[in-house]
UniProtKB/TrEMBL annotation, chain A:
Every FUZ/MON1/HPS1 first Longin domain range: 39-161
Domain FUZ/MON1/HPS1 second Longin residue range list: 199-295
Primary location class: membrane
Pfam families (alphabetical): Fuz_longin_1, Fuz_longin_2, Fuz_longin_3
Keyword line: Autophagy, Endosome, Membrane, Protein transport, Transport, Vacuole
Record-linked InterPro entries: FUZ/MON1/HPS1_longin_1, FUZ/MON1/HPS1_longin_2, FUZ/MON1/HPS1_longin_3, Longin-like_dom_sf, Mon1
Protein name: Vacuolar fusion protein MON1
TM spans (from-to): none
UniProt similarity note: Belongs to the MON1/SAND family.
Membrane-protein topology: Peripheral membrane protein
Keyword Membrane attributed: yes
From TrEMBL, chain B:
Record localization: Cell membrane
Membrane topology (UniProt): Lipid-anchor
Taxonomic classification: Eukaryota, Fungi, Fungi incertae sedis, Mucoromycota, Glomeromycotina
InterPro entries: P-loop_NTPase, Small_GTP-bd, Small_GTPase
Any coiled-coil regions, as ranges: none
Entry-linked Pfam families: Ras (PF00071)
Gene Ontology CC terms: endosome; plasma membrane
Protein name: Ras protein
Organism for this UniProt entry: Rhizophagus irregularis (strain DAOM 181602 / DAOM 197198 / MUCL 43194)
Biased composition (Polar residues): 204-214
Gene Ontology biological-process annotations: protein transport; vesicle-mediated transport
């Protein structure tokens, strides 16, 4: 690829951005280190202007985005659209969304579908700060627009999302995780949220460490897991919410990709974040008052302390399950669109081992969800693990055992696990979210 | 998180005035840093961009009988939030417009905010211009005299501040409080305006608000 930038407009970014330091922001796109990253994401406009790169500085990748734009146009001219290029260990996956082109370049062994899902999450992240209406209008007015002028300050969210998609199974599974807690405590919190329901309030939720504690919603509007991921990513992606009460517009694309909702965000303890979402941009003080009521009620029944303690604990260990030979698992309740998983203990507390396990889960997930030949059960033995994938009408299970386990022991152990989950179900999952 | 600071504990009786203050200015000039220095006496070298707007309160004593509580809207400086700004300054009693002394463009942006405030906000609004990052004097791009002259011509309070070293931060907010026409506001401005107004104006309760005493 050409590294001649002289005839490409280089956009000055100097101090436009905040104090947030991007970990790989100063990497030279022509350097060996930059090329060595296992998974790149690029977002560009249909005119070829760089909008986002996971690594390096957007203003220095216009050589690459120009080439991407040319490749895409070549197929568009033939009334076709490019989806994927396989080149050795690398996959180039394309997602074309009107004025935006999103591209993943990966040697992580993730499948084309998984990578395209990830590009969709990134696209939704952009919609969540702009809405599709604004995005379309901007590029209708000026096809050459530099979208970074409007996205300034959202890099932490895109970066955080890119990392989370590799670390958290929720994105692949299209589901979210709840804080495991006593059902009575969760119900008590839910009934306290019910006190503040009003026409100003659309959703109320408590979140700790990217997990949902409880959710209050109108009967007619459930909250899609993809929108919840965006909310979690927003709360998790910026430390600024910890220092004040915040009030911000947010578009939840699955709820309505054309308009903004308004989110009141406030940490009520060190770990626990309260989110109140309103359709009305003028309701900050009403929601701030609602927060005071919630905190007061939670404090008076000692629930606040209890939530904080639960949210500080690491979750549960595989030993709690008592299934012989079971090393780790991910269980998704298909009905509740929630998953549960034990903490990563040895050997998986080592990041490298954890990534290897994830790779096996991803491989199993991809095989089972293959569009051509979907599978109900998948049994796979690697040199280090045996992975069982099992899909029924009610759940999806991915379980890791040692490589030498017998099939009968594996079956017994899996049934023990399912029994344990059934017994613990009401503490592991939100079975009935609070509605009004 | 309404934090009241120790300074308030000194006074037990007297008048409490409550004012809405809005911070405006280009992104990354240090609006949030100024507020956090003022409210929590904290500073973070690598603070991330504010998302939307942040709301904080701080109470200061002007003298034994006068306490001023600021309700502060710290707005995000990015372009995409521009259209939301009127919601925050519409009912503001005072504003701090911030620029970065090392960034010439940020003073231009500050001037355009001042114009907008003078055109659209409450006609009695008290505006202060703050040239932040005065600790970076070696990289200064805007002369104090130039900014001071502009502030004087336009009728603004003016300070060069450093959120990092805390220079002039409390002075900035205290002099705003002192410039507020306290009695007049207390008498006149009850219950005006619309939008994010609820606690927006004044209150002359004889007892100070007692949110928490950390």
């Amino acid at each position: 690829m050409s590294n001649d930038h002289s005839n490409v407009p280089v956009i000055s970014v100097d101090e436009e951005y905040s104090g947030y330091r991007r970990k790989y922001g100063h990497e030279d796109p022509q350097s060996v280190n930059w090329c060595r990253h296992r998974k790149h994401f690029f977002i560009l406009s249909s005119a070829g202007k760089p909008i986002y790169t996971r690594y390096g500085d957007e203003s220095r990748i216009s050589g690459y985005t120009g080439v991407i734009q040319a490749i895409v146009s070549f197929f568009v001219d033939a009334e076709d659209s490019i989806r994927c290029i396989n080149a050795g260990n690398h996959k180039f996956v394309f997602l074309l969304k009107g004025p935006l082109y999103l591209v993943a370049v990966s040697r992580t062994n993730e499948s084309e579908t998984q990578l395209r899902d990830q590009l969709n999450y990134l696209y939704n992240q952009i919609l969540s700060v702009l809405t599709s209406t604004q995005l379309t209008r901007i590029f209708e007015q000026r096809i050459n627009y530099d979208l970074r002028l409007l996205l300034g300050g959202t890099e932490p969210f895109l970066d955080n999302l890119a990392t989370s998609m590799s670390d958290e199974p929720g994105f692949m599974l299209g589901s979210i995780q709840c804080v495991r807690m006593n059902k009575e405590l969760r119900d008590k919190i839910g009934s306290i949220l019910q006190i503040v329901k009003s026409k100003d309030l659309l959703y109320a939720m408590l979140i700790a460490n990217n997990k949902l504690i409880t959710l209050l919603r109108p009967k007619r509007h459930s909250l899609h897991s993809a929108d919840l991921h965006l909310i979690f990513n927003m709360v998790n992606g910026s430390s600024t919410f910890r220092s004040a009460e915040s009030w911000t517009p947010i578009c939840l694309p699955k709820f309505n990709n054309k308009g903004f909702l308004h989110a009141y965000v406030c940490y009520i303890t060190g770990n626990v974040c309260l989110l109140l979402i309103s359709p009305d941009k003028d309701k900050f003080f009403e929601l701030s008052d609602a927060k005071s009521i919630i905190v007061e009620e939670l404090t008076s029944c000692n629930a606040l302390q209890a939530i904080e303690e639960v949210s500080q604990s690491e979750g549960y260990s595989i030993a709690d399950v008592g299934a012989a030979g079971l090393r780790h698992f991910i269980y998704k309740s298909r009905k509740h669109v929630q998953y549960t998983s034990p903490t990563f203990m040895a050997p998986y507390n080592d990041p490298h081992e954890k990534q290897k396990l994830f790779k096996l889960y991803r491989y199993t997930h991809d095989r089972m969800h293959s569009r051509i030949r979907p599978l109900k059960v998948h049994y796979y033995v690697s040199p280090t693990e045996t992975i069982l994938g099992w899909i029924t009408s009610t759940f999806e299970l991915y379980a890791a055992f040692g490589p030498l386990i017998s099939k009968s022991a594996l079956t017994n152990s899996s049934h023990t696990l399912l029994k344990w989950i059934k017994k613990e179900e009401e503490n592991l999952f939100i079975l009935n979210s609070q509605v009004f | 998180m309404s934090t009241t600071n120790n300074r308030q504990n000194a006074q037990a009786s007297g008048k409490l005035y409550q004012f809405k203050l809005v911070l405006l200015g280009e992104s990354a000039v240090g609006k949030s840093s100024l507020v956090l220095r003022f409210v929590k006496d904290q500073f973070d070298d690598y603070r991330e961009s504010t998302i939307g707007a942040a709301f904080l309160t701080q109470t200061i004593s002007l003298d034994d009988n006068t306490t001023v509580k600021f309700e502060i809207w710290d707005t995000a400086g990015q372009e995409r939030y521009k259209s939301l700004a009127p919601m925050y300054y519409r009912n503001a009693n005072c504003a701090v417009v911030v620029y970065d002394i090392t960034q010439p463009s940020s003073l231009d942006k500050a001037k355009s905010w001042v114009k907008e405030l003078q055109r659209q906000a409450d006609p009695n609004i008290v505006i202060a211009l703050a040239g932040n990052k005065s600790d970076l004097n070696a990289r200064r791009a805007i002369d104090s005299e130039e900014a001071q002259a502009y502030a004087t011509d336009t009728g603004l309070l003016f300070f060069e501040t450093s959120a990092k070293t805390a220079v002039n931060v409390n002075e900035l907010f205290t002099s705003i409080a002192k410039k507020m026409p306290l009695e007049q506001l207390a008498a006149n401005s009850r219950g005006r305006g619309s939008g994010l107004k609820q606690r927006g104006v004044d209150l002359t309760s004889p007892t100070p608000a007692n949110n928490c005493s950390c």
